[in-house]
Specification:
With 162 residues, this protein is mostly helical. The protein is built from six helices and no strands. The chain is globular, with a radius of gyration of 19 Å.
Length: 162
C-alpha cells in the first residue's frame, strides 16, 4: 500500500518535471518540436484531405494546443490516482486533483514568462485545466466501470457506499 502510494506520487512529480522541461525550452526549440509533430499529422491527414497542407499554420496551432490538453489530461489522471492511493476519496479527491493541476498550470505559464520567446497565456491555463478535468473524469469513469464490473453493482449502489 505504501509502495503504491509512493509510486503514484512519484509518477505525478516526474510528469510535472517533464512539463517543466517542455516549458523551459526557448520558443524556437518548442516550435521545432511541435513542427515535427505537425509534419507527422500533416502527412497522415493529406491521405484523407490532400489540400490540408495549405492550412499549415492552423494545423500547427491545433497540434500545440492539443499538446497542452493531453499533457494535463495525463497529469489530472495521475494526480487523482495518487490522491486515491493516499486515501483521499470522492469529491475531495476531485477538487484536490483539479486544484493541484490548475495551480500547476498557472505556475507553468508564469514560468514561461521567464523563457526567451515564450509567453504566459491565460487561455493555455484554461486549456490545461480542461485537459486535467477530462483526465480526472476519465480516471473516475474507468474506476467506476471496473468497480461495477468487479462487483456487478449499479451506479446507485456504488455511490451510496462513498
Amino acid at each position: 500500500m505504501i509502495k503504491s502510494k509512493l509510486i503514484s506520487w512519484l509518477a505525478v512529480f516526474l510528469w510535472m518535471g517533464a512539463i517543466f522541461l517542455f516549458s523551459n525550452q526557448p520558443a524556437t526549440d518548442s516550435s521545432e518540436l511541435s513542427s515535427g509533430v505537425t509534419e507527422i499529422v500533416l502527412k497522415a491527414a493529406e491521405k484523407i484531405i490532400p489540400e490540408i497542407g495549405e492550412h499549415w499554420d492552423s494545423l500547427h496551432h491545433i497540434v500545440r494546443k492539443n499538446a497542452h490538453f493531453t499533457i494535463y489530461l495525463i497529469l489530472g489522471a495521475l494526480t487523482i490516482n495518487a490522491l486515491a492511493k493516499s486515501g483521499v476519496l470522492t469529491y475531495r479527491s476531485i477538487v484536490s486533483a483539479l486544484a493541484i493541476c490548475v495551480l500547476y498550470a498557472v505556475s507553468d505559464e508564469l514560468h514561461q514568462l521567464l523563457i526567451p520567446g515564450r509567453s504566459g497565456e491565460v487561455k493555455d491555463v484554461f486549456i490545461d485545466s480542461s485537459g486535467a478535468f477530462v483526465g480526472i473524469a476519465l480516471y473516475l469513469l474507468v474506476n467506476w466501470l471496473q468497480t461495477r464490473k468487479k462487483h456487478n453493482k449499479s451506479w446507485k449502489e456504488i455511490t451510496r457506499q462513498t
